[in-house]
Design a protein that fits this description.
It is built from twelve helices and ten strands. The chain is an alpha/beta fold. A six-stranded mixed beta sheet has the order 1-2-3-5-7-10, sandwiched between helices. A four-stranded mixed beta sheet has the order 4-6-8-9. Helix 1 (25-36) runs parallel beside helix 4, helix 6 (141-149) crosses helix 7 (151-160) and helix 10 (200-212) runs antiparallel to helix 11 (218-233). The chain is globular, with a radius of gyration of 19 Å.
């Protein structure tokens, strides 16, 4: 993969088109480290995409065959690589946008589900393909997929490994929108530019509250929400937002 950081956008591009951007443990570890390194004071968005004809074909099956043999070694290997990707994506205070061209399969589909916002070209295809090689969904798939598409739909996708198109992905809300391939870059750029005009620190707190509160009783969720709102009220972003409103101008966040 290659990484570019320009104008406040951290762009991560899988660059193994010969294997449809499949991820081995080293790539997964690098992805997690890169996302962990995103700084909300420096970046207002992370964009993940793939070179060539695929977003990502998921885990590198040939690399899996060479993975450590014992259950403990295998567990540690997965936890320290693909597991770290899940932690990094769910906890990153910088919003993550997935830009999907071509196939998003297995762990590639899970990355799309883990992203905060996702767009797919109309020619893209998706599959929760783990079952095809005798595995359960990983890379957070069993956690995040039913929360996005619903439990019944997630079961069908996971049990069958069916292939579906970008329009179906949008219907399931796996992606926010399916767009013509020639419009994909423009649609992502519009979203990134909109995020630039929003307070990244407050977006980070919002994401934190949404994720943390998914498993809480509503009373605990309300307490947590209130605590973060107090934090947001004391931020420079809130101060600027109030000042801009009172002065009848657009706020200038992230300055």
């Amino acid at each position: 993969m290659h990484v570019d950081s320009d104008d406040g956008v951290l762009e991560i591009t899988f660059d193994r088109p010969d294997v449809r951007n499949a991820m081995d443990w080293a790539v997964a570890a690098e992805l997690a480290e890169t996302i962990d390194g995103a700084d909300p004071e420096e970046h207002h968005a992370i964009v993940i995409s793939g070179e060539g004809d695929a977003f990502s074909a998921g885990g590198d099956i040939e690399a899996m065959a060479d993975s450590p043999g014992s259950p403990r070694e295998s567990y540690e290997g997965v936890a320290e690589t693909f597991g770290r990707v899940v932690e990094a994506m769910l906890s990153s205070p910088v919003p993550i946008v997935a830009k999907v061209r071509g196939d998003a399969v297995g762990a590639g589909l899970a990355l799309v589900a883990l992203a905060d916002i996702a767009y797919a070209a109309e020619g893209a295809s998706f599959s929760c393909a783990f079952v095809r090689i005798g595995l359960i969904p990983d890379t957070g798939g069993t956690f995040v997929l039913p929360r996005i598409v619903g439990l019944r739909a997630a079961k069908k996708l996971a049990f069958t490994g069916e292939v579906f198109d970008a329009e179906r992905a949008a219907d399931l809300e796996l992606v926010n929108e399916a767009v013509p391939v020639e419009k994909l870059d423009e649609r992502v750029r519009e979203t990134v530019e909109l995020l630039e005009r929003r307070p990244t620190d407050v977006i980070g707190m919002t994401k934190q509250a949404l994720h943390e509160n998914m498993a809480r009783h509503w009373r605990e969720a309300l307490d947590y929400e209130n605590a973060l709102q107090v934090q947001a009220r004391g931020s420079e972003s809130h101060e600027e937002g109030i000042a801009a409103f009172l002065e009848g101008r657009e706020p200038e966040f992230n300055q």
